[in-house]
């Protein structure tokens, strides 16, 4: 019954809002539509459940896994930044870097990881654990997973509502935003990495 004692609506809402801001699935709609046009129908259920499981598993074993393979959180975040950078370049320049042609592959990479459960999201779950109880973080992740599923499921409808010209403009705009996020993620974690080595 200790889990029930740790249950807190306030903590759940806070965890949900923090993760919602980091995941930013609404802002990622043009990216999802772009990937859907490229790969075909995206498996919304598979992508959202995979992302949710990645976040929950990483919440408990993230630090252990990274330490086991000799990778720190900052290096992990930098790797994620590179993947996001490549996706952004595809959107802005209209080039094809990822040659995968299977929609199933797109559901896992890059949608489940790193678009939803990316380096920023995973490092955020670790930082939330320092402040909130596990049960509330898990429920926050589950609520975000449901919301992600609804957005991915309605991607086709959103694509039909957006004109081709509007979609093209939005893809480039969000591509630039995504590029900026990847650079920010890289610089912040690279600076921390350098600082850690200097202190070491």
TrEMBL record:
Keyword annotations: Cell membrane, Membrane, Transmembrane, Transmembrane helix
Taxonomic superkingdom: Bacteria
GO cellular-component term (any): plasma membrane
Protein name as catalogued: UPF0056 membrane protein
Record's bilayer topology term: Multi-pass membrane protein
Membrane-spanning intervals of the chain: 12-35, 47-69, 75-93, 105-123, 135-152, 173-194
Sequence similarity: Belongs to the UPF0056 (MarC) family.
Main location: membrane
NCBIfam families: NAAT family transporter (TIGR00427)
UniProt cross-references to InterPro entries, sorted A to Z: Multi_antbiot-R_MarC
Intracellular or extracellular location(s): Cell membrane
